[in-house]
Amino acid sequence: MLFFISTQGEAAVVEYLRKRNAIENIYRFGGFANDSARLAQSFEQIQLQFLVKPWDFTAVLIAKEAGCEVFCDPMKRRVPLADWRMEANNPVVVLPAGTSREFFALLDQMKD
């Protein structure tokens, strides 16, 4: 999992997923665009960041074009990228195609 720890709660989500053995490694290689490119190339599996700036969304499009699923506001509304209205800070999760149901099921357990 690639992630950036801001003050918006990524650390708690990452810790929860790690304790559930849902992820093996957590790290950050560089900026958001670099992380998105690594997902597009299948070097990594999940990217989580809650403060994505509007100009970073061009990188998200690369991952989406490569077949990844992109959901904005993953902790609440879980809006597909095509339906998202850009905000100043955009919470995003990028996942391999077909894994969102399992990922969100884990997040739902976290809320309980």
Describe the SSE topology:
Elements: E1 2-3, H1 10-19, H2 32-40, E2 47-52, H3 57-65, E3 69-72, E4 79-80, E5 90-95, H4 100-111
Parallel strand pairs: 1-2
Antiparallel strand pairs: 2-5, 3-4, 3-5
Properties at a glance:
112 residues, alpha+beta, D-Maltodextrin-Binding Protein, domain 2, 5 strands
Low-pLDDT regions: none
Whole-number mean pLDDT: 90
* Strand portion: 15-25%
Q: What percent of the residues sit in helical stretches (DSSP H or I)?
A: 25-40%
CATH topology: D-Maltodextrin-Binding Protein, domain 2
Order of helices and strands: EHHEHEEEH
Shape: globular
Count every beta strand, where a strand is a DSSP E run of 2 or more residues. Answer: 5
The largest sheet, given as strand count, sense and whether it forms a barrel, is:
5 strands, mixed
CATH architecture: 3-Layer(aba) Sandwich
Distance between the termini: 23 Å
CATH class category label: Alpha Beta
> Which structural class matches the secondary elements?
alpha+beta
* Major β-sheet strand ordering: 1-2-5-3-4
Tally of distinct domains: 1
Helical element count? 4
Rg from alpha-carbon coordinates: 13 Å
